[in-house]
Design goal:
Oligomer: single chain
Number of strands: 7
Shape: globular
Order of helices and strands: HEEEEEEEHH
Structural class: alpha+beta
Radius of gyration: 15 Å
Number of helices: 3
Number of domains: 1
Strand order of the largest sheet: 1-2-3-6-7
Strand content: 25-35%
CATH architecture: Alpha-Beta Complex
Distance between the termini: 23 Å
CATH class: Alpha Beta
Helix content: 25-40%
Largest sheet: 5 strands, antiparallel
């Protein structure tokens, strides 16, 4: 089982590299990421969150029949319409805050065999895609908050961490 890295680890702020070799290790990594995500009851998980600085994330929404794997993703279009919704992060457990994001996105990526695909996403799928894609650039959901809310979240996280790690 992969360990999920938490706030303070330098991997969460690192930029990732494109995947160019679609060998047998990619499906193994994707499956391990899906297992880790499910074990923590998350909706998505990106490479840096498990110490892998590669452009990969996985997600699974409750209403979907199977998890999705995005390799070398690029958001190529975002809607001007925005929406606010409460987000959390497996790398910042125990805290949540409303985050404003585009309501719809179009994303290009590759599957585990390297085959390109494009999807238009809205609702929760668009939100999770944007959240996980941010991780590939070292951006956390708390970076999208104003300074006061970010400080409150960080204080709440430190309290959570103290309670749960002692």
């Amino acid at each position: 089982m992969l360990d999920i890295i938490t706030l303070g680890d330098e991997f969460l702020r690192a930029k990732t590299e494109r995947i160019t070799d679609f060998g047998p290790e990619i499906p193994v990594l994707a499956d391990a990421m899906i297992d880790a995500m499910r074990s923590e009851r998350g909706l998505g998980l990106a490479g840096p969150q498990v110490g892998v600085l590669k452009r990969i994330f996985v997600l699974e929404l409750p209403e979907e029949v199977a998890p999705r794997i995005f390799i070398n993703p690029e958001i190529i279009e975002t809607s001007q319409e925005l929406s606010s919704y409460e987000e959390g992060c497996l790398s910042i457990p125990g805290v949540y805050s409303d985050v404003i994001r585009s309501s719809q996105v179009t994303i290009q990526a590759q599957d585990i065999k390297g085959k390109p695909f494009t999807i238009k996403a809205d609702g929760m799928l668009a939100r999770v895609v944007q959240h996980e894609n941010d991780h590939l650039y070292g951006v956390l959901f708390i970076d999208r908050l104003d300074e006061d809310r970010r400080e409150r979240i960080l204080k709440a996280y430190k309290k959570w961490e103290k309670r749960n790690k002692s």
